[in-house]
Amino acid sequence: MSESWYKKSMPKIKDFAPLLPEIAKALKQLDGVQKVYVWGSFAEHRTKPEYRIKDLDVIIGTTLCAEDLISINDEVLKSAGSVEALEEEGFHPLAVKFSRDLNQLDRYRLDKWAVSKENRLLHWGPIFNTKEEADAINKDAEEYANEKTGTPRQKLHRASDKSCKNWYNSYRHFMGYYLNNMPSGWYQSEDADIPNILLSSVEI
User: Fold this and answer.
1) Contacts of 149 (CB under 8 A, 6+ apart)
2) Cα–Cα distance between 38 and 20 in angstroms, integer?
3) Who contacts 191 (Cβ-Cβ below 8 Å, separation ≥6)?
4) Among residues 94, 74, 80, 76, which one has the least CA distance to residue 31?
5) SS3 of 13, please?
6) What are phi and psi of 168, to 5 degrees?
7) 119-128: b (≥16 Cβ within 10 Å) or e
C-alpha cells in the first residue's frame, strides 16, 4: 500500500479495490471474526472506479455478544491489562482483544461495523439511530460541502486532491455538530434488518 494513497482525503474506488484481499485477510485473522463484508459507498459504487469515497465501510460478523462489545470504549482499551484483571472488572477479554486489534488496522481507513452473534448491528464510534437518519444528515453534510467549496459531490472524481481535501474537511465540519464530544466506543444501531443490510453488502 503506497503512502500517497493513505494521504488522500477522498480515495477512489480503484484505490481501495486492490486492497480488499489484504484487508479481508487482516480482519479474518482477528479472534472472534466469522465473515467480512464491504458496504456503503464502496458497495453501492463499486462499478465506478473513479468514484471518490470518504472511507471503506466494513461489516464484521462476529461470535461476540452485543452487550460485551458495547462495554468497550477507548478508555477500556487504553487501560486494558491482563486477561485475569479484565475478567475481574467484568469485561469479556475476547471483546477487548477484538476491539483493540481492530482499531490497530486504522491504516486502511476503515469505517468499522460489527454484527453480534444475536444479529445486532454495532459501529465503532458515535452514530445516528437509523440508516434513514444517517442518510438524511449525510445528504445535508454533502450539500453543505458542495456550497462551501463550490465543488459538487458528483464532480469530485475529476477534482484535485486539494479540492477533495477541502470538500472532505467541510463535510466533517458539518457532521461534527452532531457527533462531536461523544466518546469513542461501540454503539448499537436501531437498524434491525440485518439480512437486508448484508444483501446490500459484498462479502470479501
Assistant:
1) 163, 166, 167, 170
2) 9
3) 121, 130, 131, 197
4) 94
5) helix
6) -65, -40
7) ebbbbbbebb
Query: What is the spatial distance between Cα 46 and Cα 26, in angstroms, rounded to a whole number?
Result: 21
pLDDT at residue 4 above 60? no
pLDDT for residue 146 is more than 50: yes
Which residue in 32, 19, 169 sits closest to 109, CA to CA? 19
Confidence at residue 38, expressed as pLDDT on a 0 to 100 scale: 96
Q: Are 61 and 92 in contact (CB under 8 A)?
A: no
Question: Domain locations in the chain?
Answer: 3-126+183-203, 128-181
Contact assessment for residue 144 and residue 150, using Cβ atoms and an 8 Å cutoff:
no
Higher pLDDT, 157 or 143: 143
Residue type, 168: Y
Calculate what percentage of the chain has a pLDDT beyond 70. 94
- The answer to whether the Cα torsion of 3, 202, 184, 28 is positive or negative is negative
User: Which of the four pLDDT bands, split at 50, 70 and 90, describes residue 8?
Assistant: low
Helix residue ranges per DSSP H, the chain: 3-7, 13-16, 20-28, 40-44, 66-70, 74-79, 83-88, 93-103, 131-149, 161-179, 194-199
Cell numbers 488496522 correspond to 105
How far apart are alpha carbons 141 and 147 in whole angstroms?
10
